[in-house]
């Protein structure tokens, strides 16, 4: 019986991290991105600032995702969301774009 429990525990540890539900764009923004994008820290475009976001939106979401992943200016790679998946980063970008059109 003890061996079965240990085997089950070991198998559970091997489950992929993807088994966890991904956060929505709003959740990622509200827990991570807002730190800079709410107040414009170090030149970050503020959420809702249409003029600041317009040239970024024109580049397209894929370009913005690439920039978010690699970092730009004072923004480090992945911003403040080192535990974000690419899909979560893209969702947060979509959220910020929608709030800034």
Description of the structure:
The chain is an all-alpha fold and 101 residues long. Helices cover 58% and strands 0% of the residues. It contains 5 helices and no strands. The protein has helices spanning 2-13, 25-37, 50-59, 61-70, 86-99. Helix 2 (25-37) crosses helix 5 and helix 4 crosses helix 5. It is globular, with a radius of gyration of 18 Å. The chain starts with a helix and ends with a helix.
Q: Report on the biggest sheet.
A: none
Radius of gyration: 18 Å
Count of helical stretches: 5
Q: Order of SSEs, N→C?
A: HHHHH
Globally, the shape reads: globular
Separation, N- and C-terminal Cα atoms: 60 Å
Layout of secondary structure:
Blueprint: H1 2-13, H2 25-37, H3 50-59, H4 61-70, H5 86-99
Helix pairs in contact: 2-5, 4-5
Features:
globular; mainly alpha; 101 residues
Concise synopsis of the structure shown:
The chain is mainly α and 101 residues long. Helices cover 58% and strands 0% of the residues.
């Amino acid at each position: 019986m003890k061996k079965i429990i240990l085997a089950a525990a070991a198998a559970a540890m091997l489950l992929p991290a993807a088994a966890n539900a991904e956060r929505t764009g709003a959740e990622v923004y509200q827990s991570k991105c807002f730190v800079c994008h709410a107040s414009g820290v170090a030149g970050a475009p503020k959420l809702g600032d249409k003029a600041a976001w317009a040239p970024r939106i024109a580049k397209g979401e894929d370009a913005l995702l690439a920039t978010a992943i690699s970092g730009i200016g004072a923004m480090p790679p992945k911003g403040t969301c080192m535990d974000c998946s690419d899909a979560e980063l893209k969702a947060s970008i979509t959220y910020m774009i929608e709030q800034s059109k």
